[in-house]
Amino acid sequence: MDEAEIKRKTRETAEKLFGKGIKMDPPYRTWKEFDPELANDFSKFITGNLYSRTVLTLPERQMIAVAALAALRAAKELRLHVNAALNVGCDPKKLAEIFFQIGTYAGMPAVNEALEVYREVLQERGEWPIK
């Protein structure tokens, strides 16, 4: 894949994931403050190469991302990826179920924190309560 194709895929995938919903700065902006060239390389790799692969769908990738981030108790990243999961069509009830599932592996404090983040994102999007 040539550089122009990677840049196109990066833009398209980022728009699908992060184009609507909550208002927050993505990590890319922080990376760019420290090293613009490396930020572009990370972005092209993560969004243009990895997330644009078709072995897993974007909703499947986002369900994996939110499960991992919730288990890690990475609340800020979780906000970003919960929003992205909703943007690409993940079922809101399945996302809640994912957060309950991680309790077995990461403990109930991780579940509680994930559900709080999830509720905040849904409220910001005007999608709370879950129907």
Architecture blueprint of SSEs:
Blueprint: H1 3-18, H2 27-34, H3 36-50, H4 58-72, H5 75-87, H6 92-101, H7 103-106, H8 108-124
Characterization of the model:
This protein has 131 residues and is mainly alpha-helical. It has helices at 3-18, 27-34, 36-50, 58-72, 75-87, 92-101, 103-106, 108-124. Helix 1 crosses helix 3 (36-50), helix 5 (75-87) packs across helix 8 and helix 6 runs antiparallel to helix 8 (108-124). The radius of gyration is 15 Å and the shape is globular. The model has no long low-confidence stretch (mean pLDDT 95).
Question: TL;DR of this structure?
Answer:
The chain has 131 residues and is mostly helical. Helix content is 75%, strand content 0%.
Structural class: mainly alpha
The secondary-structure element order is HHHHHHHH
Number of helices: 8
Average pLDDT works out at 95
CATH fold assignment: AhpD-like
Question: How would you name the CATH homologous superfamily?
Answer: AhpD-like
User: How many strand segments?
Assistant: 0
> Given this structure, which CATH class is correct?
Mainly Alpha
CATH architecture: Up-down Bundle
Strand fraction band? under 5%
Whole-angstrom Rg: 15 Å
What percentage of residues falls in helices of 4 or more residues? over 70%
Distance between the termini: 42 Å
Poorly predicted residue ranges: none
In the residues, how many domains can be counted? Answer: 1
Shape descriptor: globular
- Report the sheet with the most strands, covering strand number, pairing sense and barrel closure: none
